[in-house]
Specification:
The chain is of the alpha+beta class. The protein has two domains: 167 residues, no CATH class; 267 residues, Glycosyltransferase (Alpha/alpha barrel), CATH 1.50.10.10. The chain contains 14 helices and 25 strands. Helix 9 runs antiparallel to helix 10 and helix 12 runs parallel beside helix 14. The N terminus is likely disordered. GO terms for molecular function: Glc3Man9GlcNAc2 oligosaccharide glucosidase activity. It comes from Mucilaginibacter lappiensis. One of its GO terms (biological process) is oligosaccharide metabolic process. Belongs to the glycosyl hydrolase 63 family.
């Protein structure tokens, strides 16, 4: 079924595709500072910053213009572009070709080079040795700051940002459909500083040079690269891009974000969702345990009195309308395997994980049968998954699986904390829930999800969601486990050259870009691969890991991928994908 010669052909095809789908050109062993990437796919930003540069507009089209974006969440999902920036000379924009590296973005023109770089997370410089710049957006003449000595500083409307002309001459242009702000070089040099601030902008002396900024950034990137997990040479190019994406998506504590947190993307999915963060925590757990711990706890810091976790957070907003699946116990188990957690850390998370577990049984079990329910597709993380194609509330084996795993981990933590009776309690409760899960959701062929009141199921569903119980395959009866493995291995069922399809391509409900009804996604890949590996299916787990990592190596780290072509879909630079790639390439494919 899995022929070596076919895999070799696939690798060759992927290698060719990688030159078309994205422009990263890192060579094996090359310093992270020097990789190149396409601004229409991967934003330019840096560790700690809530700003990014991209050529994608709000409708996700490549405009060839630089878009400066605010990622603080002040605008939620509205247009987060603050300014568009273009080279400018003699009252008109000039052609430009951009090259992006983790250090800087350079726009090459016939007049010279436009350079963008971060002096620090909240301070972006725009420099030029030739062309001027034209900025469109939230600047106007009434917003000049009245600060002595800073008559070249303007506030941006409705933004906590200011623009200062450090070197150059500028003004407002409001004619011939060219409304905006222009800046021309002064004595052959231009330097504009754009800064974010939290409450009041305070005048500063810009004393750090471009050269010094580059030196600091190179050291930081070198250290991050050393702390990124190792992979085989076949995946080194992907490792470099994944390392940059994860590094650049870390933001500083700000408002609701209480710790250094990794955004899901610095394109348009710029929040921290409370299951996406788990995959990032695992990827960091091998060599950056403190930062890994922060990813897990940044959402638990906002846990409410019922034990619920918010759907997502950003500095300005929390969403409570939905939940996310309780994979946090499994995540904690992964962290315990990869790094040495202290007694203090275990004591910190144990009561929070207890409350999160009890929340589902107390507040999400309307029919009181001991099997918690989803009230909306978003609660499951599978939004529009076909297994959810009946009226809510819906109960199913995937949610029960996550809670069983969570109780299993709670028992292990309880033992480490000297709570022997509580450990025994969690083990008993996990066994009870497992028995109920099997008796209620196993129909003899597969696990099903059903309306909690009527028992109705979507008979047309052929969703991979039914196979998430593979995560606890080592606890399942052998007959059930073997049937699930056979189904997963069956040609054309779920396995494609690119991973596991979220809906079988043979299903009448399959859609190539139908979100959770077709594409390959990182989370179920890692969850199912982990379960297969623990169930003794090590070769199959490795084969699936190889297919997914090959897909990422060719197409970058999109939110998801077409299951039949491998084409990257939706947000093209998503951290749970880059993190899952790093985990699988390191843990399953390095040797």
């Amino acid at each position: 079924m899995y022929h070596k010669n076919k895999i070799c052909v696939i690798k060759v095809v992927y290698s060719l595709l990688s030159m078309v789908l994205f422009t990263t050109v890192a060579a094996y062993g090359q310093n992270l500072s020097n990789i190149k990437f396409d601004l229409a796919r991967v934003p330019f930003s840096r560790f700690g910053s809530y700003m990014s540069l991209s050529t994608l507009d709000h409708d996700h089209h490549d405009t060839k213009e630089i878009h400066l974006c605010d990622l603080s969440g002040a605008k939620v999902f509205s247009n987060n572009t603050v300014l568009t920036i273009a080279p400018w000379h003699e009252q008109q924009t000039v052609p430009v070709k951009y090259e992006a590296t983790p250090l800087q973005v350079q726009g090459k023109t016939t007049l010279g080079t436009l350079t963008f770089y971060f002096e620090r997370p909240e301070r972006l410089h725009i420099m030029s040795d030739g062309p001027g710049v034209f900025l469109k957006g939230n600047l106007d003449s009434s917003n000049t700051l009245r600060v002595p000595g800073y008559n070249k500083t303007w506030k941006l409307r409705d933004e906590r940002m200011v623009l200062t002309i450090k070197s150059g001459n500028g003004g407002f242009k409001t004619e011939n459909d060219k409304n905006g702000f222009w800046v021309e070089p002064e004595q052959g040099h231009l330097d504009i500083v754009i800064e974010q601030y939290r409450s009041d902008w305070l005048p500063v002396q810009y004393s750090v040079s471009y050269a010094k900024s580059m030196e600091i950034l190179k050291k930081e990137l070198l250290q991050w690269e050393k702390n990124t997990v190792s992979v085989s040479s076949a995946y080194e190019q992907g490792r470099e891009l994944a390392a940059y994406i994860n590094w650049s998506c870390i933001v500083k504590p700000n408002g609701i974000v209480s710790r250094y947190g990794m955004l899901m993307s610095k394109n348009w999915m710029f929040n921290i969702w409370s299951w996406d963060n788990c995959f990032n925590a695992i990827a960091l757990s091998y060599h950056q345990p403190k930062l890994s711990w922060a990813q897990l706890m940044v959402v638990f810091d906002q846990q409410d009195s019922t034990g619920a976790l918010p759907d997502y957070i950003n500095p300005h907003h929390m969403v409570w309308e939905f939940r996310k699946p309780p994979i946090h116990g499994w995540t904690l188990g992964q962290l315990m395997e990869h790094s040495q957690l202290s007694q203090k850390q275990l004591a910190e998370i144990y009561p929070k994980l207890v409350k999160w577990t009890n929340y589902w049984f107390i507040y999400r079990d309307g029919n009181h049968n001991g099997l918690p329910e989803y009230y909306h597709g978003n609660d499951s993380g599978w939004d529009n998954g076909s297994a959810l194609g009946v009226e809510f509330p819906i109960e199913g084996a995937d949610l029960a699986t996550f809670l069983i795993k969570q109780m299993e981990v709670l028992a292990k933590v309880a033992i480490k904390l000297g709570k022997q009776k509580e450990a025994a309690y969690w083990n008993r409760r996990a066994d009870t829930t497992l028995n109920k899960m099997i008796s209620n959701f196993w129909d003899g062929e597969k696990f099903v999800s059903k309306n909690a009141l009527s028992g109705k199921v979507n008979k047309d569903s052929r969703s991979l969601m039914a196979y998430l119980p593979m995560l606890i395959g080592d606890r399942l009866p052998k007959k059930i486990r073997d049937k699930m493995i056979d189904d997963l291995k069956k040609p054309g069922n779920f396995v494609t050259e690119y991973g596991l399809a979220s809906e079988s391509p043979q299903s009448k409900l399959y859609g190539a870009d139908s979100y959770w009804r077709g594409p390959v996604w990182a989370p179920p890949m890692l969850l199912i691969i982990d379960g297969l590996n623990r169930s003794g299916e090590k070769d199959f787990a490795r084969q699936l890991a190889e297919r997914f990592c090959n897909t990422c190596e060719a197409g970058g780290f999109a939110e998801n991928f077409d299951a039949l072509t491998g084409q990257p879909l939706r947000d093209p630079a998503y951290t749970w994908t880059s993190s899952t790639f790093l985990i699988l390439a390191h843990q399953y494919l390095e040797k």
